[in-house]
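Structure record:
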Amino acid sequence: MPRTALTGTRIRARRNLRGLRQSELARAVGVSPSYLNLIEHNRRKVGVELLGALAQALGVSADALAENGDARLVEGARAAALRCDAELVDLERIDEFTGRFPGWAKVLSETQARVERLERIVEQLNDRMTHDPYLGTALHEIISAVTSVQSTASILNDPGEIDPGWQARFHRNILQDSARLAEGAVALVNYLDAAKSDEAGLAAPQEEVEAWLDARDFHLPELEAPSIDPDAMVAGQVELSSDASRHLAAQWLRRFRADAQALSHADLLSGLQSQGLAPEILAEQLHLPFDLILRRIALLPHSDLADCGLPPVGLVICDNSGTLMFRRSLDGFALPRFGGGCPLWPLYQALQRPHVPLRAALTTSGRLERRFQSYAYAAVEGAPGFDRPTVLRASMLIVAQGDEQGVETGTPLKVGASCRTCAHLECEARREPSILMSPF
């Protein structure tokens, strides 16, 4: 049973609620008042037997004293300290600070969470302003209309005489360009307003498909039935608002259905329970492609992964160009909204070595580094031939390091989401300046 930093604080609170003096409670559980005082001020850890005796004396369950979600306060305070380059000796006293000042620890933890959330929003907005194809087209249309109006107005403003016929034509051009400018501005405002319900909004069929799957925890048990029709599944789905998104969704569902026919949900869970997170072993034992195993693991509901003792996972799939075609995000591992990701990802290394499974430990760049395990694999799509180009699809499974099998794969590789939002300023693979100017 976990005993966290605020166990003593909760013991003191429960004792005060029952109107017991410290000496009375200490006598009831067989310890000295001074020792109980140290426990209540979180200066001493309480053992399982003593915790049980205290819970019985206070008329509550031991869980009520031992658990109250304060681990999040400790982690939040630790993250804030790391952001400010706190000394190691201060980091070692985070538990004591949280135990003695839970209110301030909560303020610090919530402030840290808000800072992280705002940083993610800034990254998303920067990614959007840099790569959003709709924004680029809309702004180009507006600038084009403004330039045309300005050019025509300068001609009309010329002191020389203009033929009445040409003058009428110029006036008509200004009217048409002004209408085009107004329509473009209204469309752009509506597009930006529509995004207010979400931090970045949806702008492409791929995003609609990913949002639709995310609402279902990326798990569609209907696909386990071979007779299911993917086109029928996506028909009438309000989240898929366009023909393009429904077509794309059906395309992915056909692939996932083929994966499910090759490896059933029950067999996959059985393999994970017996082998742990070892896709290379599962692929060898079941004689299945490595990337199929990665996709099947990534599309398990988080509850099934937890039942197997595994953490949540993420998945990205790209084509030859490196553009991300499919994304299942994972907390702490940022994925770019448009275009390609970090060139150091094993996902892209796999494109250079088709049909060779890769495994690498990763850490995210920045002050608050998080460690992950990655598995990547690239395979040729379709039948090979002399007269057709080679089409590759690369997949990368992302797992929180330390929670699965603790696989040791050497020194972790420091990666980011994309160059524009990566804090690793000295990276040899950097292709454009970062908006995060201060090095970590």
Observations:
- The first helix runs from residue 7 to 18.
- Residues 196-202 have pLDDT under 50 and may be disordered.
